[in-house]
Amino acid sequence: MKPRETLEEFYILHGKEHDQDAHCNVYRREDFECSKNLKPVYRRDFYKVSMMCEGTGILSYADKFIKIDKPSIVFLNPLIPYSWEPTSSVQTGYFCLFTEEFVSSELKNESLSQSVLFKAGGDHVFFPDEASIQLLKNVYESMLNEAQSNYDNKYSLLRNYIQIIMHEAMKIQPPQTYAQHSNASERISMLFLELLDHQFPVSLDNVMLLKNANEFATQLNIHTNHLNKALKETTGKTTSEWIAGRVMKEAKSLLQFSNWSVNEIAYCLGFEHSSNFIISFKKKTGDSPNQFRKRILSKS
């Protein structure tokens, strides 16, 4: 799984020019090679709200996949690792892409804060009825026109259109048509280990984002117990054991090969207080971080 995909890389993949000053863009699927397979990516730095009008395909994330064979609306945020496999040559519809900079307090207001657009867990695919399909088509057409206009406040208007799409989706009952992959435990374990591996190496500008079992499970869109069960079944270790082991490995490496302070190492590894890191490290190794560093360096 690729660790990260930027908006610019997404445009390059689809052979399009990228306007770096535009924090929101709208397209027709048929004009953007949306039939192209999208491989799993750990983290994208943009949101995507896509409407399929014609065409079929399979959307996969974590241990679930859903066959899309009728008009649908799909919400994807930067925390959802997903892949798309088209199963038809015809792929029509619309989608909009926007960055975190585009997300305003209005777009994430109280009533919409629980929307699937902003949550890593939950359902992200909805199948609208005929009335909603027509409404959504009209909204996307208006967005297309507005995105190409010179109106000074067009981005505020585009936010309003996205809110309409979000509210419309919130009216729709989530689908109950998800299926389990035949090798679900192995797939979950593979995705988890890749997510864990891509947390590293850390730096002062790239700190550990996912720090506990609940955060990893949320990222994978599954329950913590489900993740633990899959890992225990396939690896013999729990989620917490894997995380703690990898953190300790990174901590030892940084103490040996960097000149970072203990506070800096603790910060990058996701510890709220350096004292917590020191206690955890000593419990695992028998040495404090400074004792470990002195002992290792004295041997080199």
TrEMBL record:
Residues 186-295 form the HTH araC/xylS-type domain. The keyword DNA-binding applies. The lineage of its organism: Bacteria, Pseudomonadati, Bacteroidota, Flavobacteriia, Flavobacteriales. It comes from the Bacteria. The keyword Transcription regulation applies. InterPro entries: Homeodomain-like_sf, HTH_AraC, Tscrpt_reg_AraC-type_HTH. Pfam families: HTH_18 (PF12833). PROSITE patterns: HTH_ARAC_FAMILY_2. Keywords: DNA-binding, Transcription, Transcription regulation. PANTHER family: ARAC-FAMILY TRANSCRIPTIONAL REGULATOR, TRANSCRIPTIONAL REGULATORY PROTEIN. Coiled coil: none annotated. One of its GO terms (molecular function) is DNA-binding transcription factor activity. This is AraC family transcriptional regulator.
